[in-house]
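Q: May I have one protein plus its fold?
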Amino acid sequence: MEIPQHVRRIYPFQSRWMEVQGHRVHYVDEGEEESKPTVVLLHGNPTWSFLYREIIPRITHKCRAVAPDYPGFGLSDKPLNERWYTLENHTRIFTEFIERLGLKKVILVVQDWGGPIGVGFAIKHPDRMAGMVIMNTWAWPEPSVFHASVLPWRMMHAPLVGAHFFLRRNILVERGLYLSTENREKLKAGAVLDGYRLPFSSPASRIGMLAFPRNIPLKPGDLNWDRMAEMKAALPTLRFPCRLLWGEKDNVFPAENAQKFQDLLPNCTSPRMIPHGRHFIQEDAPMEIAEEILALVDEGDG
């Protein structure tokens, strides 16, 4: 996929590729290769490594920064079978990706679906973890009041309605990003919105967007309920340092989620609340995020 010049100007990183379990995974890898720890930046839905374009240049003077696109997102391959898009598959692909890069000392930066994927990796591989920056996400069976409300849940799971809005109307990119970002003037700029639209130009390219919401469990018996319950139970066993940074205006994962992480994680800072931040905090507070990442990098080097 060719990246247009006006998008390339704000996303100037070299594209790299790795074949993982039959899927071509796109990622960027910037900074000093030998520096430790390595910062790995995980995106959510409906975004890709483009989400971290303003953060990567702020941290690579001190560390190596790696930002992958999950299969189904960004410039990675996009499986056409919705049933492929499970939390288990994403975590397995990500785990092999880290192993193939040979990363031994990792700081994960997670938001939205990056939370369950990253926490799932950390629980299984605590020996590879140097720390985590956690932003506007969750890692337990009942994500938030927003997800428990009737309208979004029914819309996401209704076969025809969900497909219409997510696949045909591209609602998460065209409307969701705007509603979930405080810095909306930035999104109106052609290059930024075009960067988010770029990988999702057809209904077939948006299947991962629809599958992620359908992976959210709200009651026992739902897909991933047991997996997320095990994840919640394992959070207190994670001893590496964690830092919390939260968009205070997020209605998807509100401030209560930040407090829950602090309560469950034994080596976690108090949440750093961003008054002007919404769900996609990377667009609203890239400088503050870089500060939290570099604080962990300095701690890891010490």
The domain at 5-301 is CATH 3.40.50.1820 (Rossmann fold). The beta strands are 16-20, 23-30, 38-41, 64-68, 106-112, 129-137, 242-247, 272-274. The chain has a mean pLDDT of 92. The longest helix spans residues 286-301.
